[in-house]
Amino acid sequence: MNVKKYIILVLSIVSVFVAVTGGIIAANLAFQSQTSENNKAQPDVLDKTQPFQLGKKINVLIMGTDGSEARSDVMIVASLDSKNKKLNMLSIPRDTRVKINNKYQKINAALTLGKEELAIRKVKEITGMPIHYYVTVNFKGFRNIIDILGGVDIDVPVNMNYDDPVQDLHIHLKKGMQHLDGKKAEQFVRYRQYPEGDIGRIKAQQAFIKALLEQKLRLEYLSKANDIFKAIKENVKTNITAADVAKNLSMIKALNSNNIQMYQLPGEPKMINGASYFVADDQKTISLIEESFGYKLSLK
C-alpha cells in the first residue's frame, strides 16, 4: 500500500466536513514542504503542544468560509485523542453570540473582524479547550473533492428551496434518497431553513459526514488521492506540517465512522434586540467538554 496516498485519502475524506461541519483538511497540506508564512496564526493564540504526540489530545479549529470567503459559514473543533484513537467533533453554530470589541456579534463575523487569530480566541472562550491548530477552507475545494469521489448518496430530509443572489447561492433539492454531485452536496450542507435553524443544518451536515465516510473510506479510492490533493491545496489555509501528520499514522489509519463522534455546542436560539442569535449554555458546555472531550475546566 502507498502510505502517503492512504493518508491523503483518509484525511481528505474525513476532512471534507471542514466545509460541511468541520474536519482535518489541513492534513492534506501536510505533504507540502512548508506552511507559508501568511498562513500562520499568531503564536500567542495557539496553544503549545508536542505535535500529535501519543497520549495527547490535539484540537484543530476548522472553518469553512461562505461565498464571500470572509465569514465562517462552518466552525468545528476537531479533537484527536491519539491514545484512544478517537476523533470528537464539536459543531459551533455560526450565529453563536460572542462579544467582540465590547459589542455582541455572531461568531461567524470573527474571521472578518480579526482573521484566524480572533476566531481562535472566541472559540477558546466559548469551549474552554486549548486550540493547537487551525484550518480555513472554501467551498470550491469541497465541491471538487465530492466530484472526484463520484458523489454521495444521501436521504434529503426536506424539500430544500432557497435563493441568495448576494452569495450566488441557489439551493433546490427534493426530499428523499438521491445521489449528490459536488454542486448539489454544497447545497445540501449549506441549507439552513429548518424550523430549528442552524441546529437542523448541523444535524444534516453530520448525516452527510457519516454517509461520506461509510461510502468513500475504502481502499478502492486510493487512486483518487493525488487528484483530491491537487483540488484542495489552493483552497486551504493551515499551520499543520508534514511532521504533525507523520507522527500519528496509526491513528489516521484507525479512523472510521465508529470512532468519530459528533457533538453540538449546547444552547438555544434567541431573539435579542431584533437579532437572531444562538446563545451557548455555559454549564452544559462545561459538562459536555469534561465528559466527552476529557478536559477539566470552568468557563468565565
Whole-number total of structural domains: 1
Head-to-tail CA distance between termini: 49 Å
Main pleated sheet:
6 strands, mixed
Q: Helical segment tally?
A: 9
Number of separate strands: 14
Q: Calculate Rg over CA atoms.
A: 18 Å
Please state roughly what percent of the residues sit in beta strands, choosing from under 5%, 5-15%, 15-25%, 25-35%, 35-45% or over 45%.
25-35%
CATH topology: Aminopeptidase
Query: What is the spatial order of strands in the main beta sheet?
Result: 11-6-1-2-3-12
Q: CATH superfamily assignment?
A: LCP protein
CATH architecture: 3-Layer(aba) Sandwich
Mean pLDDT: 76
From N to C, what is the helix and strand string? HEEEEEHEHEEEEHHHEHHEEEH
- What is the overall shape? globular
Kindly provide the name of the CATH class: Alpha Beta
Judged by helices, strands and strand pairing, the structural class is alpha+beta
Helix content, binned percent: 25-40%
Identify low-pLDDT runs.
1-11, 14-40, 50-54
Describe the structure.
- This protein has 300 residues and is an alpha+beta fold.
- The chain has a single domain (3-150, 196-293), classed as LCP protein (Aminopeptidase, 3-Layer(aba) Sandwich), CATH 3.40.630.190.
- The chain is built from nine helices and 14 strands.
- The strands form five sheets. It has a six-stranded mixed β-sheet, with helices on both faces. A two-stranded antiparallel ribbon has the order 4-5. Strands 7-10 form a two-stranded antiparallel ribbon.
- β13 (267-272) and β14 (275-280) form a beta hairpin.
- 44% of the residues are buried.
- Residues 1-11, 14-40 and 50-54 have low confidence and may be disordered.
